[in-house]
Amino acid sequence: MDNLLLKGCGTALVTPFKNEEVDYKAFEKLVQFQIESGIHFLVPLGTTGETPCLMDSERIKLLQIAKANSAGRPVMVGVGTNSLVMTRGNIDVLAPYGPDAFLVVTPYYNKPSQDGLRTYFQAVADYSPKPIVLYNVPGRTGVNITAETTLALAEHPNIIAVKEASGNYAQISRIIAHAPKDFAVLCGNDDETLSLMATGAAGVVSVASNIVPKELVQMTEAMQKNDLVTARAIHHRLFDLFKNCFVESNPIPAKAALSLMGMMENELRLPLVPASESTMALMRRTLQNLDIIK
């Protein structure tokens, strides 16, 4: 896609499993559910997709299914690791199957300096045949990209956006205020979507939209129209869902909810395990309160 614009709501898709294998039929139904609900873009193979536990052949097939059912929506796939060689290798594996952009997380475990982060992301962007979206999630990786580093990287012609999940409003606000006009800031936490879009973020990469895509589309489109009354109402209605999707490590609660909805099995790959009884009960109540299940 030329001049790719990522805005509105993109779903960080879960990867369904059944009997320890990827459930491709359930994944296809999930993608179709997203498209029918008007989702703006798709994000398979991210944190929510349990990507570190997927084999190359599985990742390729999941990307193929997402692309085949995307109805022309952009598909951004996760490729980031804590090694430049491995990240480039992931790009090589997936690039032939038509992704529109690559989501690249900050290298985890290594704890690079800001100079190391800048040099790493520049090297990935120089190598990639598709646009790069930075992914800042220090709660997962142990390292934060500062506003200054993000803004420096935003000048690279092949780095088009950042998914910001630091939870640091001041940092994200500074990026929004000073980034180039064609650089998008995407919220990485559902419960911050309203406030960050009010500040100027382009949209959200959402976990909750696996469950309620139509509502997240409505909320982000309302924000794009400066319809705060509608957006606030949706935000408050969904706020418990936003928070409860993270009472255990993502995507454990989201998969619990999707299993209650009959979308897939409540199965994960080790080291993740299915939701505890208390989380399962919490997600059941949350869905009942939203009239999604009885």
Which short descriptors sum up this protein?
single chain, 294 residues, alpha/beta, TIM Barrel, 8-stranded parallel β-sheet, two-stranded antiparallel sheet, globular
Description:
The chain is of the alpha/beta class. It has one domain: Alpha-Beta Barrel (TIM Barrel). It contains twelve helices and ten strands. Strands 4-1-10-9-8-7-6-5 form an eight-stranded parallel sheet. A two-stranded antiparallel ribbon has the order 2-3. It is globular and about 50 Å long. The N and C termini lie far apart (42 Å). The mean pLDDT is 97.
Short synopsis of the structure:
The protein is α/β, with parallel strands linked by helices. It is 44% helix and 13% strand.
Structure class: alpha/beta
Give the rounded overall mean pLDDT: 97
Helix-strand topology string: EEEHEHEHEHEHHEHEHEHHHH
What profile does the largest beta sheet have? 8 strands, parallel
Number of helices: 12
What's the CATH architecture name?
Alpha-Beta Barrel
Helix percentage range:
40-55%
The level-1 CATH class: Alpha Beta
pLDDT < 50 stretches = none
How much is the radius of gyration in Å?
A: 18 Å
SSE arrangement:
Elements (H helix, E strand, L loop, with lengths): L7 E5 L4 E2 L2 E2 L1 H13 L4 E3 L12 H13 L7 E3 L5 H11 L6 E5 L8 H14 L4 E5 L1 H4 L5 H7 L5 E6 L4 H10 L5 E4 L5 H7 L3 E4 L6 H12 L3 H17 L7 H9 L16 H13 L5
Parallel strand pairs: 1-4, 1-10, 5-6, 6-7, 7-8, 8-9, 9-10
Antiparallel strand pairs: 2-3
Helix pairs in contact: 1-2, 4-6, 6-7, 8-9, 9-10, 11-12
